[in-house]
Amino acid sequence: MAVVVDEQDDLFYTQAALDAHCPGAGRIVVHPTTASGHPAALAHDVLYALGKRLAPGPHSPDVWMDSVDAAWRAAAAWAQATAVRHVLVSRVHLLTPRRIDQLLAWRLATGVQLTLLWQGKECKLPPVLGRVERRLRGRDSFEALLAEPGPIPARPSFPPGEPLACRPGVTAGAGVSRRSSAGPERGPASAGRGRPAADCGGVAAHLGHVMPAIAVGGQSSAVVSALAHPLAAGALSVLAFTRVGLGSLRWTRDLDITGDVSAIKVHGVAHRSCVVYVVPDWARPLLAAARAHHRLASGPLQGSVFAPVMRCEARHLRAHAGRHPCLGLSLPVAALLP
């Protein structure tokens, strides 16, 4: 972590920070909304710098992001999934001690390099920042900092890789049938006759046959990618490129997504017919963020990744889908019923 001291509030530092903003290269610049008294305002500013947008309005489907913990966990998940390495924050001298503490806790959760622009008197640095060993002054020092390559990402990124169908032993275009041969069974996650969730293996055991992703238009993928909450973005991306029913998301577990987020296993009703799909490049960071969010919440491998957005009849997901007709998704309440 570094603190850049700019007692004269030189416009040079703000302009240099603006020019350094490049999410694709792992560097973002956060401009705090210091006039906002909202407890989660700084987390929202971080999400905005990450390219995410909160739905407006008092009845917004993102209303749950008003929670401080929810907003910061979402910001941490996006930072991990997109391999953000360097974060610059301007106007830190206007932040409250509480928001500075939130920012430092987020840094620990993500492992990013954090550069804080203190545009005020150095003698007014709070104790927590006064202990930072790397303290810079002067234009040359700041330019040298920006020229550094930055740390290795704390988490892997998910660039376009080799198509899954090109891997040895993988055949595209065939689904993975998971019909139970043991007759009627009922488990904690089954609905009627079929295989219990505990007996339905993860995606790694069923990569022999995969289904190709359904093509999604650029406008639709951009809309989903801009959603602020990683669970909403990840869930809607799966619905968009598989066209499965909403109820299928109830059983999606951590172990149903490959380590490189190139394939996902989608479960059928009572696990009688589950299918593995190729994850398109545009959706990989979204599912990576959803999985990171699940792990940040200490979710188990066997736990449902999308469980938080499936509550209350999945009203958050249905509200987002309703705001964007271009997605072509129909999410009736009946899709959640056994």
- Figure out the total of helices: 10
Strand-residue proportion: 5-15%
Name the overall outline: elongated
Gap between N and C termini:
51 Å
Name the structural class: alpha/beta
Order of helices and strands: EHEHHEHEHEHEEHHEEHH
Main sheet: strand order: 2-3-4-1-5
Give the overall pLDDT as a whole number: 83
Uncertain stretches:
174-194
What is the gyration radius calculated from CA atoms?
Answer: 22 Å
Topology:
Layout: E1 2-5, H1 11-20, E2 27-30, H2 41-49, H3 68-81, E3 86-89, H4 97-110, E4 113-118, H5 127-130, E5 134-137, H6 139-147, E6 171-172, E7 209-210, H7 218-225, H8 230-242, E8 263-266, E9 275-278, H9 284-296, H10 315-323
Parallel strand pairs: 1-4, 1-5, 2-3, 3-4, 6-7
Antiparallel strand pairs: 8-9
Helix pairs in contact: 1-6, 2-3, 3-4, 3-9, 8-9
Describe this structure in words.
This protein is α/β, with parallel strands linked by helices. The chain is 30% helix and 10% strand. It has ten helices and nine strands. A five-stranded parallel beta sheet has the order 2-3-4-1-5. Strands 6-7 form a two-stranded parallel ribbon. Helix 4 links the parallel strand 3 and strand 4 (113-118). The longest helix has 14 residues, at 68-81. The radius of gyration is 22 Å and the shape is elongated.
Q: In a nutshell, what does this entry contain?
A:
The protein is an alpha/beta fold. The chain contains 10 helices and 9 strands.
Could you list some keywords that capture this structure?
single chain, 338 residues, alpha/beta, 5-stranded parallel β-sheet, two-stranded parallel ribbon, 10 helices, 9 strands, 10% strand
